[in-house]
């Protein structure tokens, strides 16, 4: 096996929309029957479909005999980002017939809960779709309607194709559908989904590229808006009324650092006085609980725009938890991030109330608030593998998929997203060394120094298996390994 420096990884390219043969349809349908009956090993099913079936059976407990998608529950309010996405995708959906030659299907736009907002198509197709309740204000999330183009794409980073008996619910076998989720460029959470469905006919091969282009164009507009919010966070940082010696950082709604002064930079392991306006340039703080803290602050501030609070976070640099004063930053009614005054419970001049602290990494005197999993679930072809964390040498992100390099081979993790896996393994000796890599420090055998101080961690010297360390993560890696 070659090292990460010379490897190109990733899942296989998306399957085309071509029709499945009668033999393949029967084989997949038989596999679904065995799986719904409790079998854990089935053959001839694509990994993304099998993982969706696993969620439908074990996590969501969706009835495979469901005849129609249920009516959607009343949803909460949508942010400005949601409305921008809905408008963009609605325009794409309305133009689908002109953009994709020869297509005769139903095009839908749904929100992040899988709630269909609008449908486009011929009268004939809309009537057929109504039979499955593929219509406005129906619920097509995986947790309500099983494996399908809309719900399953919300669980994945790439466009998803679901054909015939690949659907979890037997009644939907007449449909072939493809969907793509548009995600928040800051938090990477889904905002909406664009989907095309055809009845008993294959999708055109042009559909998946069309979906990808529509999603990419929409996310490009979101990145422009996010850069503007980064500028606003930096301005709020400059205007903050705190003592000049206070360690202060401005973070976005994902907990990434837009700007930090020298005092805060030392504590959270980021560059000092270096603004990062664009989401892709923002700094990941070396504080494990920061993403969860940012999420909770956002939720509280959405409920009360005058709220500010205090909490404690564990700082690995100090080996202990310190107090943090939190003040949300808003752009109109939208929460865009927060100012954090570290090491001070009164860094804000507003009345403050406590916010429940996020999970923290255990230090010498800080207990872990929840146990870490004893096993990591992974997929090898059509079988589930339970890994002891000690068997994993490193994890590598490919969009929202995570590939595990382990003593049992290279496996696809059941967990979606490297951030989620990092939170699960934070107390098992794993360290984020790159935006795409999480390494088991206990399996590092050699450290190679590259050009201009770059680092590579060798986890298996027999096969030159190395993992790159990014410049922003190099200081924390050197400190942790005692270099």
TrEMBL record:
<feature type="compositionally biased region" description="Pro residues">
    <location>
        <begin position="356"/>
        <end position="371"/>
    </location>
</feature>
<feature type="domain" description="HTH LytTR-type">
    <location>
        <begin position="385"/>
        <end position="483"/>
    </location>
</feature>
<dbReference type="GO" id="GO:0003677">
    <property type="term" value="F:DNA binding"/>
</dbReference>
<dbReference type="InterPro" id="IPR029016">
    <property type="entry name" value="GAF-like_dom_sf"/>
</dbReference>
<protein>
    <submittedName>
        <fullName>LytTR family transcriptional regulator DNA-binding domain-containing protein</fullName>
    </submittedName>
</protein>
<feature type="region of interest" description="Disordered">
    <location>
        <begin position="347"/>
        <end position="373"/>
    </location>
</feature>
<dbReference type="Pfam" id="PF04397">
    <property type="entry name" value="LytTR"/>
</dbReference>
<dbReference type="InterPro" id="IPR046947">
    <property type="entry name" value="LytR-like"/>
</dbReference>
<feature type="region of interest" description="Disordered">
    <location>
        <begin position="1"/>
        <end position="20"/>
    </location>
</feature>
<keyword id="KW-0238">DNA-binding</keyword>
<dbReference type="InterPro" id="IPR007492">
    <property type="entry name" value="LytTR_DNA-bd_dom"/>
</dbReference>
